[in-house]
Amino acid sequence: MIRVGRSFPYTVILRAFRNILLGAMMLVAMTVLIGRPTVFSDTDDYYAQGHSVVRALQRWAQKGQPPFDISEMRYRLSNPGGGDEEPEHNQDGARSVYYGLLLYLAQAVGSLWTLAAIQALAAATLVHLIWRRLAPEGRARSYFAIMAVLCLGSSLPVFTGFAMPDVFAGFAAVSTVLIVAYADTFGLWAKVLLWLGLAACVNFHGSNLPTTLALATLGLAGMALLGTGWRKLLARSGFVLTAILAAVLAAKAYGVAVKLRTGDELGRPPFLTARVLADGPGRAYLAHACGKGAPFQVCAFRRLPLNNTEDILWADEPELGIYNSAEFPVRLRLDREDFRFALAAVAYQPGQELAMAIRNWGAQLAAHDLNEPLRDQGYYLVDTYWKTTHLPRLIQGTGRCDPERGTCALRAPPNGMAGLFALTAILALAVSAACLGLCLPRGGQGLKLDVRGRIACWAASLLILAVPINAAVCGMLSGPFARYQMRMLWLLPLAAMLLVSIVRTARRNRPR
């Protein structure tokens, strides 16, 4: 067992730091080859939140004003003329202020290159940790081989260079596997850092909480079957659950601070309402219940098409959307009734919603394009609305960007890279299946792994299972968007490479 603690040799630690730093540099080098770190429309919202909190803390330090005064933050909606002003925190509950702080501080001390370096360093560290535990006898060159495959054949460098919290979905999966299978191999301070990392990953995006919970439950069940004692299982369960609780409490604490300081409540768009409407049961329930006095604000929109979540939430045209095009009081009521309406719609047609949820799950698994993280950054400099936001300054901080001269376009073709990564993922699944076939006991065949080898195979399997679990959470609760799938796809070649190392080690140590 590898244990990172007080007695762990400093030379080993320094060697690990060297390898991790080189692995991170490989990822940043790929961002350089792509052209620059990239932004998305939501990047502006994260940055605005982080900026507002830092301004509030500065006022507190300089003038003694209470912190979390973010009354200067205004969201300009995508309407002609720059949009209207509204109570500031209408949608903040849907985005993590803590990732916003990371983004803002990284930009403040450097640029988006700083953020890309931080995310690359986190990725290289987690890959090194799980490689060292699943392949403890592996040499450094095998770690660099894994990093090379991830850099050249996976989506990891695209998302480490993307100023959005998407990459932390994969980080949450790796952290969960490390805790579930290998918590005892870490010393105290390493455990604290791993716990903090998992809490941050869960907090940074709402989909990471159910994905982490499902993956941890499945992982602990497998560890029980592999003979792990109940005391260890309880300790590891507590490890994951307290990290999740910390993430939730941190989000709640921000909401309470905002309420106490400004009187606003954090809101979030009605994602569940949009999902059941687009799936069909929501529309059927509207037709059934609204004429009978159902107390839902969404009844006012029952004559609209309501068959596309993007239109429902973000369309500016009143004949298409119900949220972005509505006045603030209407949005507030839609926010507050979101769960109740979705529950009522599912109860009205549970079979139809289940069928649509399964279909959305499959569509999410099949989605593979990179048009969002690899969009031509010049778009945000010339669009009527986006050029008035923080995005142009963030983009220009990464290097010269002139849409008229074509210097904003990225060197990486989104469709070509997405196809390559999908093929790599398919190949990785085939390799993983072959390796797992050797790991399974089959009479006199197979590798006859010891307990450590079986745990390693299970840990690698969990990395693979994290991909469909994430697809189920995102596809069923939000919608099948390719970005949600591509952000996790790098786990498949990682698992395949780790399984190859496990098999090679087992064959090398097999009695002759």
Order of helices and strands: HHHHHHHHHHHHHHHHHHHHHH
Question: What is the count of β-strands?
Answer: 0
Helix count equals 22
Mean pLDDT: 88
Specify the biggest β-sheet: none
The portion of residues forming beta strands comes to under 5%
Task: Kindly provide the radius of gyration, computed on alpha-carbon positions and rounded to a whole number of angstroms.
Answer: 24 Å
Task: Give helix % range.
Answer: 55-70%
Class per helix and strand makeup: mainly alpha
Distance from N terminus to C terminus (CA atoms, Å) equals 24 Å
Unreliable segments of 5+ consecutive residues: 68-87
Shape: globular
Descriptors:
single chain, 512 residues, mainly alpha, 65% helix
Description:
The chain has 512 residues and is mostly helical. Among the domains are: 10-259, no CATH class; 271-366, no CATH class. The protein is 65% helix and 0% strand. The protein has helices spanning 10-34, 41-63, 97-109, 112-134, 140-153, 156-160, 167-182, 188-204, 208-225, 230-262, 271-279, 281-289, 309-314, 328-336, 338-348, 350-366, 379-382, 391-396, 414-439, 451-477, 482-486, 491-509. Helix 5 (140-153) runs antiparallel to helix 22, helix 8 (188-204) packs across helix 10 and helix 9 (208-225) runs antiparallel to helix 20. The longest helix is centred in the middle third of the chain and has 33 residues, at 230-262. The protein is globular. 45% of the residues are buried.
